[in-house]
């Protein structure tokens, strides 16, 4: 599929798996035209494009571009394509998952480079995209900015220091976007999902123990699913949510109550 002239798109950064993919499919199944930006190998990309085609055959308006969302040059080339087709973005969802899970001590401890890469990818990259879209006047009015955070932004977890720092930066950035871009009809919010069995989660050490603990303390005795989160992304895409701005919304079934 090609970018269609004069179209309004929802843009999902990091949407090939997990929460991003579930959200992209939910938005598309609800009548939105969705563009996914992802970064992966050629073999995965071929399989993923087949999944996209299957969704297109089902009547969903989905397309995907394989490039690094952190690459400024490639980002601008993509945005110029939208500009040439006179398109607009009504929702930007930041679901980039590129971080380092290492302890803060020992032989393989976190390095300053690990922190920098994680902070950019999962933290202030949100602002880089918001700014670029705004400068090129690609945001619709109104428009929504959403980003996925985690409980790690405020609670320490083993081997999670770099990601925790990035999520704290992400939330602070989102609040500032909410304040400074409101004059342009743009709202910004974060979604804090409960523990959800995604590929990213599986990389966390001792994850089996964490899952058992979460299932025990969650009022519903289960983990959060990608669809649970995607449903809230959809709710926040609706005009009825236009007055929700600058907050972190928990989607965890009450997991954080205990």
TrEMBL record:
Pfam families: adh_short_C2. The keyword Signal does not apply. GO terms for molecular function: oxidoreductase activity. InterPro entries: NAD(P)-bd_dom_sf, SDR_DHRS6-like, SDR_fam. Transmembrane segments: none annotated. It comes from the Bacteria. The keyword Oxidoreductase applies. Keywords: Oxidoreductase. Belongs to the short-chain dehydrogenases/reductases (SDR) family. This is SDR family oxidoreductase. It comes from Psychroflexus maritimus.
């Amino acid at each position: 599929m090609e970018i269609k002239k004069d179209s309004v798109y929802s843009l999902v950064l990091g949407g090939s798996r997990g929460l991003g993919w579930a959200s992209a499919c939910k938005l598309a199944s609800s009548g939105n035209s969705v563009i996914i930006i992802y970064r992966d190998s050629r073999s995965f990309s071929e399989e993923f494009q087949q999944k996209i085609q299957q969704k297109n055959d089902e009547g969903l308006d989905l397309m995907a571009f394989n490039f690094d969302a952190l690459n400024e040059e490639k980002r601008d080339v993509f945005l110029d394509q939208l500009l040439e087709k006179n398109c607009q973005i009504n929702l930007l969802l930041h679901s980039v998952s590129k971080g380092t899970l290492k302890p803060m001590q020992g032989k393989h401890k976190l390095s300053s480079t690990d922190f920098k890469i994680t902070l950019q990818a999962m933290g202030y990259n949100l602002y880089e995209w918001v700014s670029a879209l705004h400068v090129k006047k690609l945001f619709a009015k109104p428009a929504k900015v959403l980003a996925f955070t985690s409980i790690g932004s405020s609670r320490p977890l083993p081997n999670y220091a770099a990601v925790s720092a990035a999520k704290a930066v992400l939330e602070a950035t989102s609040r500032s976007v909410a304040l400074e871009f409101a004059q342009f009809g743009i709202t910004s919010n974060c979604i804090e999902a409960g523990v959800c069995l995604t590929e990213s989660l599986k990389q966390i050490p001792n994850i089996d123990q964490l899952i058992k603990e979460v299932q025990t303390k969650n009022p519903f005795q289960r983990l959060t699913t990608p669809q649970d989160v995607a449903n809230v992304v959809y709710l926040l895409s609706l005009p009825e949510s236009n007055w929700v701005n600058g907050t972190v919304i928990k989607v965890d079934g009450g997991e954080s109550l205990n």
